[in-house]
Amino acid sequence: MDLEECILITDNTLIQLSVHCPKLQALSLSHCELITDDGILHLSNSTCGHERLQVLELDNCLLITDVTLEHLENCHSLERIELYDCQQVTRAGIKRIRAHLPDVKVHAYFAPVTPPPSVGGSRQRLCRCCIIL
Fold first, then answer.
1. CA 80 to chain centre
2. The predicted structure's pLDDT at residue 109
3. What is the three-class DSSP state of 11?
4. Which GO terms describe its cellular component (predicted)?
């Protein structure tokens, strides 16, 4: 199910999906900026989370933290998690989920911290290549 860029998706949506979509295998929630760890908790505790969910894309879900990764440890069929630009997810969180689900592929991007304002007052953003863990 591709819900990418559906900006009105909330945790309540995930509760409904967890109840009414027990055969869900892949879910893209990229750019759904209202999704939180609580929504992922409901999804991970559902039948689809426990038994079927293989792919979860959470790119640019700014409220997602390492707590989401802890919840996803219940998703035993999970093969791939996308976490590009999830600024509150840490390398330590990824390391923990990989310890519980050693076969899961975690794709994450860790942007460097925005540097202080440069001379002239404009802020520059630095980029580097994606890190696939």
1. 10
2. 79
3. helix
4. SCF ubiquitin ligase complex
Report how far residue 70's alpha carbon sits from residue 81's, in angstroms, rounded to the nearest whole number.
13
Give, in order, the Cα–Cα distances in Å from 65 to each of 26, 31, 33, 47, 128. 20, 15, 12, 23, 22
pLDDT at 125: 43
CATH no. of 11-132 = 3.80.10.10
- Full-model pTM: 0.82
Q: What is the pLDDT of residue 128?
A: 41
Strand partners, 26: 55
Question: What does the DSSP 8-state code read for residue 124?
Answer: -
The DSSP H or E segment spanning 80 is strand 80-84
Distance, in Å, from the CA atom of 82 to the CA atom of 67, rounded to the nearest integer, reads 15
Express each pLDDT in 31-77 by its tens digit. 999 999 999 999 999 999 999 999 999 999 999 999 999 999 999 99
Token digits of residue 2: 């591709």
Strand partners, 77: none
φ/ψ (deg, to 5) at 27: -145, 125
Q: Which of 89, 61, 90, 118 is nearest to 126 (CA)?
A: 118
